[in-house]
């Protein structure tokens, strides 16, 4: 192999595949990155056997070929190079790295030894949508994912495909976030509805590495999922198991409906967090007939504080409800717009947080039980 590639192209591609590099010493080649010429492009790939990422980079190909080299060493050379033009060639199982004023030889392994990147057997069926739409949807639910060895089924994001929408759902049993992508926002030729659980690491990488300039395609095949566009592919195992019946958690109605300024509530929770107790609790209430929400917290070691926010309220008033302030703040920050809808059903039932203008997203949070 003999190629010339721009440092910026090479660095971007290596950064994209980095999270698929394995740290395990059981199979040393999984610490390597694959470089191989492919269809007039340079294929750069990594896998840890659960996740594989492939990136196609542009460059000048003088001789075809391939090699694998330790990712860490190679990435450090590229990252610290002060030349934009990098020449790479192979000499048996060595990679020779050259710039105008620097050269290095890295011991590698033949590309034939690299694990086979899995393929989806049937790429005919797909969901295709703008990458920005998918990334925005995923970003709204990620904070509710909990990585759990005891309950692996909640360690990822549920993709619940219906004939007319795609729901993205995450829960950690204390909160639940759901974003619905409507049928006008994607196209598909799937005829069967399905539910799959995508690992947190996998879907987080999709958000990071896929360009928003191209649409993204999603393919599913048994226990695997493939995300791809013109120059990037990410294939991953899915999480086995049955996702919780999340629709049973969603309140069908709310006893108290409150609309208020989102940023005031965020500020109130931030201030109250300084006085929260060991359970990270902040409390709120709306007295019957009053048009203010009281947000407060107290600690016997620090002190107490109180914040009043004007609200528009329907219902009999909200008794004192305590929330974990970190979870509460996560939900508030994700809601779009300046105004916030807060639906409460008492101090021991889940509350709903959403935007009055956007019915496609909501965040449900369980209160901290009194006593």
From TrEMBL:
CDD domains: beta_clamp. GO terms for molecular function: 3'-5' exonuclease activity; DNA binding; DNA-directed DNA polymerase activity. It comes from Candidatus Giovannonibacteria bacterium GW2011_GWB1_47_6b. Confers DNA tethering and processivity to DNA polymerases and other proteins. Acts as a clamp, forming a ring around DNA (a reaction catalyzed by the clamp-loading complex) which diffuses in an ATP-independent manner freely and bidirectionally along dsDNA. Initially characterized for its ability to contact the catalytic subunit of DNA polymerase III (Pol III), a complex, multichain enzyme responsible for most of the replicative synthesis in bacteria; Pol III exhibits 3'-5' exonuclease proofreading activity. Residues 248-368 form the DNA polymerase III beta sliding clamp C-terminal domain. It is found in: Cytoplasm. The keyword Plastid does not apply. InterPro entries: DNA_clamp_sf, DNA_polIII_beta, DNA_polIII_beta_C, DNA_polIII_beta_cen, DNA_polIII_beta_N. GO terms for biological process: DNA strand elongation involved in DNA replication. Its main location: cytoplasm. Keywords: Cytoplasm, DNA replication, DNA-binding, DNA-directed DNA polymerase, Nucleotidyltransferase, Transferase. Residues 128-245 form the DNA polymerase III beta sliding clamp central domain. Residues 1-118 form the DNA polymerase III beta sliding clamp N-terminal domain. SMART domains: POL3Bc. This is Beta sliding clamp. Belongs to the beta sliding clamp family. One of its GO terms (cellular component) is cytoplasm. It comes from the Bacteria. Transmembrane segments: none annotated. SUPFAM superfamilies: DNA clamp (SSF55979). Forms a ring-shaped head-to-tail homodimer around DNA.
